[in-house]
């Protein structure tokens, strides 16, 4: 009898592939537990063939505050060409801040100014009007009507177009001095105006605290500019295009953004009231920009960085630009430049100092008076700093009127600190160049 035939050895079944594909007619069958035979899956299969499942719940969605600010900025840029991205950030945050006015200690002004007509000032004000909280357009309104429209509980947002007709000339400014006083007082909380009212003629306090946007040709009065986020508009260059604005067609979309701002910010009222953010500037500039920075911090994302960058750059550019304190700051900067050019001597003759100041083609001193700057006018400019000329003996043995360099140290440190390597670049480059353009905040 021959040897028995060996029994066939069954070949191992192939490893089942998991997860399987969907099976027609059996919904979700491929989502059930894998069969027991598939519990041991080769590491190679896991590494190479197994699809990577991502939990969508781990992907953090963009917060509503960040998104609505981004959408608002896009709408602003759709209708207006602003001078730079810092201006876009500033206008966006200013509009949002109007929805939390009761949280702020200071009500920043938005000064929209330009050198001529057709710079987009009124168009920007159109967009602002449709997105701020409780807009109150004050064309030809009397100061009495305005402050009677302001309440403690829900201050309106004042909107003044063609402000140059109110303050553009000395006579117009004199006629509207009450309005300027109201706008100045309303920058800070608890600065009411008193008026005699009622049949008994008793004095009555009216609140003035309210945010305000003003648009016009040329700078506004310096006291208003000093309390403002300043947007310096300019005409569109060839190739810069914007969408036309039609009230009936375009305001619904802007009102949707306005309502989203309200829905996001009103629940944040208590949080915003208690915040005191780190500010990149000081004094009144910090007071003016604080509401905008708080809104940016509430939104999160890139907005806190964008807000502080805009604050530093725009404040640095505006520092010393007003007509009054601007010249007094400019004279300090230019005198420091003259001392430096002369090798920083201990003293400098008045005549030599004036000669150098008047000889600078980029400075205003050659036109400061009928014959330019002279010793008397120089003394008046420096009087507020308690800097006065004195008799000094110079190296050539001659005694003459002059100034000691040490006299300026305190004023330089307080009013025009020397720029450092970390100083921000100006956000909006001025038309003229020169030392004043580098004035710090």
Defining key terms:
alpha/beta, five-stranded parallel beta sheet, three-stranded antiparallel beta sheet, 17 helices, 10 strands, 39% helix, globular
Protein architecture, described:
This protein has a five-stranded parallel β-sheet. Helix content is 39%, strand content 11%. The model is unreliable at 43-52 and 421-441 (pLDDT under 50). The protein has helices at residues 43-48, 64-79, 85-97, 121-129, 143-147, 164-167, 170-175, 177-185, 222-225, 247-265, 269-273, 283-299, 303-318, 323-341, 350-358, 375-383, 409-415; strands at residues 109-114, 135-137, 157-160, 193-197, 202-206, 212-217, 228-232, 347-349, 390-393, 399-404. The chain is α/β, with parallel strands linked by helices and 441 residues long.
Chain-wise SSE layout:
Blueprint (H helix, E strand, L loop, with lengths): L42 H6 L15 H16 L5 H13 L11 E6 L6 H9 L5 E3 L5 H5 L9 E4 L3 H4 L2 H6 L1 H9 L7 E5 L4 E5 L5 E6 L4 H4 L2 E5 L14 H19 L3 H5 L9 H17 L3 H16 L4 H19 L5 E3 H9 L16 H9 L6 E4 L5 E6 L4 H7 L26
Parallel strand pairs: 1-6, 1-7, 2-3, 3-6
Antiparallel strand pairs: 4-5, 8-10, 9-10
Helix pairs in contact: 2-3, 2-10, 3-12, 3-13, 12-13
What's this entry about, in short?
This protein is of the alpha/beta class. It has 17 helices and ten strands.
- How many H/I helical runs? 17
End-to-end Cα distance, whole Å, is: 113 Å
Biggest sheet strand line-up: 2-3-6-1-7
The major β-sheet equals:
5 strands, parallel
The number of E-state strands comes to 10
How large, in whole angstroms, is the Cα Rg? 33 Å
Shape: globular
Q: Classify the helix fraction into a percent range.
A: 25-40%
